[in-house]
Amino acid sequence: MNSQTPGSPPGATVDFGYQQVSPAEKTARVRGVFDSVAGRYDLMNDLMSGGLHRLWKRFALTQTGLRPGQRALDVAAGTGDLSALLARQVGPAGLVVVSDINREMLARGRDRLIDRGFTGNVTFVQANAECLPFADASFDCVTIGFGLRNVTDKDAALRSMRRVLRPGGRLLVLEFSRPQAPGLEPLYDVYSFRLLPRLGALVAGDAPSYRYLAESIRRHPDQPALAAMMQAAGFEDCRWHNLAGGIVALHRGFAY
């Protein structure tokens, strides 16, 4: 794993939740978070969202534009929910590359996908989103679901994902965002900072990791800010769809 942020100046700090740490320390801490929660990751996702995360991912797949025989890259793929849906879209003649920086999460994703019968059109690569080890213009679609906020250098990751997209390809970023529905934000704060760590302690035996989750969501760029970052990275026609009142947003940008 790459524990350094490409191009980070000496003494630079980045967000780890509400703390400021060095880029290398954030990478190590995020790795520790996902090493800790990997065994209960899927169960916690279902509990935290009431199963809605599956609907959000299915909606994201309606925006890929993928056709049978094409190639897709799932960055920060975790346990492979999006990867499985992508594999169905590209079919036996296509290819989905499942990537994650965390070895434990990637291993669990590989096991889940193999158990579900996805073998011939899926491959697995441990990779840092900031410096993806793929040739330019390799993929027709790149997805990253609930992973960008954990990346140490988000701008570098967006540039890396832009580089590997073919002309006309698109990036989909599914991520927690800023609630837009009136009155929703205070309720969401109570859930995030009081109930979520307790749930993490009860189910995963790890309250601090889920406290970090809540903090990382608050530090993540809101909808317009993320769209601007995507444009700065070279994407065009950047738009977003708010889901669950803006608690989650799907951003889309094209490579031309």
Q: What is the secondary structure topology, with strand pairs?
A:
Elements: E1 14-16, E2 19-21, H1 23-37, H2 41-49, H3 52-61, E3 71-75, H4 81-90, E4 95-100, H5 103-115, E5 122-126, E6 139-145, H6 154-163, E7 165-176, H7 184-204, H8 207-219, H9 223-232, E8 236-243, E9 248-254
Parallel strand pairs: 3-4, 3-6, 4-5, 6-7
Antiparallel strand pairs: 1-2, 7-9, 8-9
Write a concise keyword list for the protein shown above.
two-stranded antiparallel sheet; single chain
In short:
Helices cover 43% and strands 22% of the residues. The protein is α/β, with parallel strands linked by helices.
Q: What can you see in these coordinates?
A:
By secondary structure, the chain is an alpha/beta fold. It has a single domain, classed as 3-Layer(aba) Sandwich (Rossmann fold), CATH 3.40.50. The protein has 9 helices and 9 strands. The strands form 2 sheets. It has a 7-stranded mixed sheet with strand order 5-4-3-6-7-9-8, with helices on both faces. Strands 1-2 form a two-stranded antiparallel sheet. The longest helix has 21 residues, at 184-204. The protein is globular, with a radius of gyration of 17 Å. The relative contact order is 0.15.
Coarse morphology: globular
Radius of gyration: 17 Å
Instruction: Compute the number of helices.
Output: 9
Uncertain segments are 1-6
Largest sheet: 7 strands, mixed
Q: Look at the structure and give the CATH class.
A: Alpha Beta
Question: In the CATH scheme, what's the topology name?
Answer: Rossmann fold
What is the distance, rounded to the nearest whole angstrom, between the alpha carbons of the first and last residues? 31 Å
Q: Which structural class is indicated by helix and strand composition?
A: alpha/beta
Within CATH, the superfamily carries the name Vaccinia Virus protein VP39
**Lateral strand order in the biggest sheet:** 5-4-3-6-7-9-8
Number of discrete domains: 1
CATH architecture: 3-Layer(aba) Sandwich
Reading the helices and strands in chain order gives EEHHHEHEHEEHEHHHEE
Q: What fraction strand?
A: 15-25%
Helix share, percent: 40-55%
The number of strands is 9
Averaged pLDDT, please?
Answer: 92
